[in-house]
Write a structure and sequence with these properties.
Blueprint (H helix, E strand, L loop, with lengths): L4 E8 L6 H17 L4 E3 L27 H13 L2 E11 L2 E9 L5 E6 L11 H4 L14 E3 L4 E4 L8 H9 L4 E5 L3 E2 L4 H23 L2 E5 L2 E4 L7 E4 L3 E3 L5 E4 L6 E8 H10 L26
Parallel strand pairs: 1-2, 2-3, 7-8, 8-10
Antiparallel strand pairs: 1-15, 3-4, 4-5, 6-7, 9-12, 10-13, 11-12, 13-14
Helix pairs in contact: 1-2
């Protein structure tokens, strides 16, 4: 591996009720990705448990843990052993009554570089995240968005619902990210799958490939797989299809809908340079004209 290149890896797997089994699957995936040369490795959203947000149940707050805490400490030891940087999603207990959907970023020496806390929190059928999660702090440096400069690459982290927002990708890219990592837990409502499943998957992939193109960065989206039940509902079927795209949106690696898989790809800084020279979107941004983006809607002419 030379100074121009760095390899990244994504670990896709199902999640069950046994935390240790989930953790073991993630560790095995990290070891496989490392053996294949990956030096920046990302796990899927809330990988240590089932996707508990399918219902609002206060008892499920007991799944949360501090950062650093048991999961992060295991991953710190593994990162140090393998000399890899890790993006480790956790259900974070920050204080009594304050919980976040977070990702800890660990460098190749095992040090904790920091924590990204999900900024956009959904509230949809079987995605009851507003019940559980406090959003990241918009008053933090970068407006809550952050880039972590690991030994191997500058890594931006955004989580699941964040992936639909071009503003989040843009700010993170402007802060110097070379790769955007999107830990994800997205799936189908089983009754909708036949009619809407293909177009939902296509929209999910298209949105993130567009972030790669618009910002000239690599994108790694890491989803889970498997059907997870919820009493009184049809549950959710997570559709996998984790993927890695280059700065022009070319898909370098893609997983299946229903199998545990580890993806790896080699990223090139010269590819970022090449794409940004040919399609200089950052150069041509009209930063003097974007003030209206700070409004929810432009209801009055004077807001434009």
């Amino acid at each position: 591996m030379n100074a121009d290149t760095f390899a990244i890896g994504a670990v896709q797997h199902p999640c069950g009720d046994d935390r240790q089994v989930n953790l073991d699957r993630a560790v095995a995936g990290i070891r496989e990705a490392s053996a294949r040369g990956a030096r920046v490795i990302c796990l899927q959203e809330l990988f240590a448990s089932t996707y508990f947000c399918k219902a609002a149940d206060a008892a499920r707050f007991d799944l949360a843990e501090p950062v650093p805490g048991p999961t992060v400490e295991v991953m710190q030891r593994l990162a140090r052993e393998l000399q890899v940087a890790l993006v480790v999603p956790v259900f974070e207990r920050r204080a009594a009554g304050v919980y976040h959907n977070s990702a800890a970023v660990i460098d190749a020496d095992g040090s904790l570089l920091g924590v990204y806390r999900k900024m956009h929190i959904p509230d949809d059928p079987l995605y009851c995240e507003k019940f559980y999660f406090t959003p990241g702090d918009a008053r933090a440096p970068g407006g809550g968005f952050a880039v972590f400069r690991t030994r191997w690459a500058a890594v931006g982290v955004l989580i699941c619902w964040d992936q639909w927002y071009p503003e989040a990708a843009r700010i993170t890219a402007l802060a110097g990210a070379e790769v955007l990592c999107y830990p994800t837990a997205i799936g189908w409502h089983p009754r909708e799958k036949a009619a809407l499943g293909a177009e939902q998957l296509a929209a999910w992939q298209t949105a993130q490939r567009a972030h790669a193109i618009a910002n000239g960065v690599y994108v790694m989206a890491v989803n889970r797989i498997g059907h997870e039940p919820e009493p009184g509902t049809d549950g959710l079927e997570f559709f996998g299809h984790s993927f890695i795209a280059d700065p022009f949106g070319v898909v370098l690696a893609e997983a299946s809908a229903d199998r545990p898989e580890v993806l790896t790809a080699v990223c090139s800084r010269s590819r970022i340079e090449e794409v940004r020279r040919g399609w200089p979107f950052l150069r041509d941004r009209r930063v003097d004209a974007y003030g209206p983006i700070l409004h929810r809607l432009l209801d009055r002419p004077e807001e434009a």
